Amino acid sequence: MPPTRIVQLATTILEHTQKVDSYLAVENIPTPSFEISCPPRLALPASIQESQHAVVEASDELMALMLGPAASLTALHPHNSWTSLQAIQRLGIANSFSPSTTSTFSAIAQACSQSESDIRRLLRHAMTYFIFQEPSPGIVAHTASSKALAEIPQLGQLVGFMSSELWPSATRLVDALEKWPQSEEPNETGYSIAYSTDKPMFEFLAQYPERAQRMAKAMSFMNSGPGYSPRHILENFDWGDAANGLLVDVGGGQGIVAIEIARHFPRIKCIVQDLPEVIEGVSVPDDLAKDGRLMLMPHDFFQEQVVKGADVYYLRWILHDWSDKYATEIIRQLVPALKRGARILVSELCLPDPCVLSRYKERHARNFDISMKQIQNSKERDATDWAQLFAAVDMRFQFGVNWTQGKARIIKTIAMALNSTATALLRSEDEAALATKNSEDATHAREYLSEEEAARKQWVSLNSSGTTTVRGDGISTVNPGKGETIMMKTFSTE
Ligand SMILES: C[S@@+](CC[C@H](N)C(=O)[O-])C[C@H]1O[C@@H](n2cnc3c(N)ncnc32)[C@H](O)[C@@H]1O
Questions:
Q1: pTM here?
Q2: Ligand 1 pocket mutation pick from 229, 233, 274 by most atoms within 8 angstroms of CB
Q3: Which residues are in the O-methyltransferase C-terminal domain (predicted)?
Q4: Scanning 170, 410, 431, 435, which has its CA 20 to 30 A from the CA of 5?
């Protein structure tokens, strides 16, 4: 008789835990623990990460099965899971005593001007999540997690942003749906209700510089993950002549990514556009200031693009902030500026199709999507959503998928998937490619091809028109065996 699902899962956990364990032993890396000597991140090579993820995913499913249907509904969604963490972060408890010493509930209570009883209750709750420990009655000691909170300020900013901006919005999302059904407005959200404001979150936060700064730091901490590295577009986008041309980074913030692009390609010129208050007082690094290699320009992306004829218009983490109503407007404002062969390059999350990733990984991506709904009435988009968004602006935009192959690339893209990011690339095609593309069935874009098939099959289009003058292609990788997928998509004009 084949083993039951729960035994299969337990076996997976054992086998893959042993692989991780052997690697750690060979490399002389301490085994994971909650002790303060444990480093905040378990850095593993890609091959061992596969085992790490297998253990986490199998544990996730096994826990749900072992709890049973009724208990798992509540036990897997404890509504209080953020309460003690929010208290620890907001009251500065992690920093109230050094990780190398211990403290007491009463000393911590005094340091945070709270009652000893409340601090004891909150910390004992947190301890069930391995945040702090009580080595002997009344004595509080750090664990690896509380120490990480104390010693990595940006992690504290991220926890603060999640617990004090996202979590309250999450609790009011359904209220917002009931109050403003089908709204696409950024000021009719769970966030609006949670903070009793009629301003969109970004505008509302601008009134509270400390909170706005906390969000900016939290975002830059998230952005420091490997999946968000600009190297993905530097290495994977087919830059061609654009490497010597002009790139406009639309909503490019203070130019951090454009600076990397400009330093990578010695002849490219970059213009970074953002709202005046964002770029005010920001200076261009000396090495890029000469010859106008990088310039900052105030520009509202809801107004017509003023830089005409650039080779690439780059939208990095822009469109996911906006519902379709507004995202289409941002794209529409670019169209009059697009010269023949210009490309629109988009770096965004591409939501996986259902059941392609493990539930554990898919949950991560879906969390991003729901968060965007809670705070902006915006969304993360899947491949079809992306195609439809561009088609809604101009049917001449073409969307296609180019399945690529090769272990190295697949491993790399898995790493990107784990970090919930993908890159959408917009580029142009030649006539022959267009003819082939038009003959393909759009639904093929949803197929999960084997690596061998992927090597043969170049791309599939979702939109085509006999008189098309604007077109594009795409790159996507898929690893059917592992159920991982990540996409790089292109659109373009010509
Ligand atoms: C999520 S951030 C992305 C920043 C940058 N592209 C990056 O990847 O780091 C969104 C950016 O859009 C900018 N933004 C918001 N509304 C804008 C508008 N109407 N016109 C131009 N930029 C805007 C914000 O100031 C912010 O820098």
A1: 0.80
A2: 274
A3: 187-391
A4: 410
**CATH code matching the domain that covers 83-151, chosen among 1.50.10.10, 2.60.40.10, 3.40.190.10, 1.10.10.10:** 1.10.10.10
Give the position, in ligand 1's atom list, of the atom nearest the Cα of 278.
Answer: 25
Q: Whose CA is nearest to atom 20 of ligand 1?
A: 300
Q: Which of 232, 272, 314, 318 to mutate to test the pocket of ligand 1 (most atoms within 8 A of CB)?
A: 318
Right CATH number for 226-492 from 3.20.20.70, 3.30.160.20, 3.40.50.150, 3.50.50.60?
3.40.50.150
Q: Catalytic residue at 320?
A: yes
Question: pLDDT digit of tens for each residue in the chain (494 aa)?
Answer: 999 999 999 999 999 999 999 999 999 999 999 999 999 989 899 899 999 999 999 999 999 999 999 999 999 999 999 999 999 999 999 999 999 999 999 999 999 999 999 999 999 999 999 999 999 999 999 999 999 999 999 999 999 999 999 999 999 999 999 999 999 999 999 999 999 999 999 899 989 989 988 998 888 888 777 777 888 788 877 788 999 999 999 999 989 999 999 999 999 999 999 999 888 888 999 999 988 999 999 999 999 999 999 999 999 989 999 999 999 999 999 999 988 878 888 888 878 888 888 888 889 889 999 999 999 999 998 878 888 888 899 877 765 443 332 222 222 232 233 222 233 332 222 222 333 333 332 222 223 223 323 322 222 222 222 212 222 233 333 222 222 223 333 333 33
> Measured on CA atoms in the order 367, 368, 370, 374, is the torsion positive or negative?
positive
